[in-house]
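FAQ: What does a multi-protein file look like?

Like this. Sequence, then tokens, then the next protein.
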Amino acid sequence: MKLNAISKSESARYMGVKGIPDGQTKEILEKYEPIVRERLKPSYVYRKVKVNFMPDGVKFDGINTVFTGNDIKKHLSGCESAIILAVTVSSEADKLIRQASVVGMADALAVDCLCSSAIEQACDIAEEEIFAENPVVFRTWRFGIGYGDLSVSLQKEVIHALNAQRRIGLTVTENCLLIPSKSVTAIIGISDSPHEQQKKGCEICSMRETCGIRKNGGCRKN
């Protein structure tokens, strides 16, 4: 997978900038954007699974654990199957952030936010490639593990089910944090017929009370 130019406006918003970035912010983002884009090594792995609805959530064929929660049930309502996806931009992101921190906090923040924009782009590219190979009538948006009332502890089940450690070097800590840190796991519902899509936004996100992005106008795709 090859990244396109990383959005500097989105990265600035992740930095907490409201409106048009000032000259200093533009300069630091322009400095690091080509470096970040060159160094990152995005990759992904996915698995198509059948969806089985349970009283307390959903269960996927080949995965023993029930993914409990009302939000994931609503998200997959009407879907016969789903794509379970894991994406990372590699450990190079964490290395770049550490290296930039030696220069200064502003540099580290800029690199961190460029990497955050990069993982979003990588997820978009992965989704495009997956569904180019597997055309469907209808698909949902990406529902991240830990979003809404879906427990973040299910990261371990997803990583195991996708064999993500061996295939793309993605692991999960005892505290359910993904390593490398700039990585995403998500579920996309698919169906043979279109149906009403569940709304998404800050109100059902488990990070809504602490999210700095929300304070600056909300997530990119809200």
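And here is the next protein:
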Amino acid sequence: MKRIFDIVASGLGLIVLSPLFLIIAVWIKLDSRGPVFYRQTRVGRYNKDFRIFKFRSMRVGSDKGSLVTIGGRDSRITRSGYFIRKFKLDELPQLINVVRGDMSLVGPRPEVRHYVEYWTAEQMHVLDVRPGITDPASIKFRNENKLMEQAEDPEKYYIEVIMQEKIRLYLEYVEKQGFWYDLGLIFQTFWVIVSKPQ
């Protein structure tokens, strides 16, 4: 049932949102050099790598440095990128990943391999389910960049504090997941984005 819902909802989403996709794509191309989409390797279900789709919000080559983004005004973020990140519009292309079966609408956010290597054997159970576009941790840490900005060592703070709490919430989700629970998280995500933009 979850997979059927994912396919139908993400397929309709791609159709309905296609005009918005076009507007964002044109803005990104006019704003800075580089591709419209940003593709990054993430760790998916059963510990298998896949390439995630996002609208590019940073300057080309920015990911060759730190993997963490610090603050809403990170100098690597483009003008269009600042806006689409504020309203989480950069995440919309992940509907393509949902259709392809790499992701679900709701599930633990997919992490890069570099950070998954820090996980314990117990924490690896997060990978028993498909990663998602949203989940309880995404809602709780929607202002994650601002938290990182305040840390003396942002990467260490992410690994030792933020990531640990995220994984705790991911594991809770794995235990509680269900159609109605997922639906509630989708509506909660929309509400938070609209009512409390970053």
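Q: Is there any per-entry metadata?
A: Some entries carry free-text notes. For the entry above: Residues 2-195 form one domain.
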